[in-house]
Specification:
Layout: E1 6-16, E2 28-38, H1 51-70, E3 80-87, H2 93-97, H3 100-110, E4 120-124, E5 131-137, E6 148-152, E7 162-170
Parallel strand pairs: 3-4
Antiparallel strand pairs: 1-2, 2-7, 3-5, 3-7, 5-6
Helix pairs in contact: 1-3
């Protein structure tokens, strides 16, 4: 496979100080990075598509590093993550599934070996399609305070023969978390769940 062809990259950081309740001293930060890339399988059915996952690995690492930098450069502040893909109209949802391993393992590597599964979503759509990317705690999927979603999308992407691959990270619990369940301070860190 040829190198991954990138058309554009968008990085955003949102700071949430409150949602109608008490103002947080330190805002909850939510960051997303979207890379719009050429889809080498667009327009035809290809049986063996897995080699592209290997090609996507360096992109995943670069995107994860940029997210950490956008959040201040210290990976220890990252407590939540997720990933996703929007596949252009000449592709298929399975092409977006190729992002699972390169995107997820890249974030785990950059964050120092997080244990929880990286939640994911994908869909096929045209330019302007929006995607809600799920977020869970980096070390324990059952930590309710970190359940979130970050909406991403670009007005001109993905074009029919492109994919928009996405990584997201957050810096902690939702700003007014009070839904109960396992607290981050009580994570055992044994299985990625609790």
């Amino acid at each position: 496979m040829p190198d991954v062809e990138i058309r554009k990259i968008l990085t955003t950081v949102e700071e949430v100080f409150h949602e109608g309740g008490p103002r947080a001293n330190v805002p909850y930060r939510r960051a997303a990075i979207v890379a719009v890339i050429a889809n080498p399988y667009a327009g035809e059915y290809v049986e063996d598509i897995q080699p592209f996952m290997e090609d996507l690995k360096p992109l995943g690492v670069m995107m994860a590093q940029r997210l950490v930098e956008a959040l201040g450069g210290d990976s220890s502040v990252v407590e939540g993550y997720g990933k996703g893909a929007i596949v252009g109209l000449e592709g298929e949802v399975e092409h977006g599934a190729l992002w699972h391993a390169p995107g997820g393992y890249a974030m785990r590597e950059v964050l120092g070996g997080s244990k929880a599964i990286v939640p994911s979503t994908k869909k096929v759509g045209g330019p302007g399609t929006r995607l809600d990317v799920p977020v869970t705690h980096t070390d324990a999927s059952y930590v309710r305070s970190h359940f979130d979603a970050i909406e991403v999308g670009l007005n001109d992407a993905p074009r029919a023969r492109e994919m928009a691959v996405v990584l997201v990270m957050t810096t902690g619990a939702r700003v007014h978390d009070r839904a109960g369940g396992l607290a981050a301070k009580d994570i055992k860190g044994e299985d990625g769940l609790r």
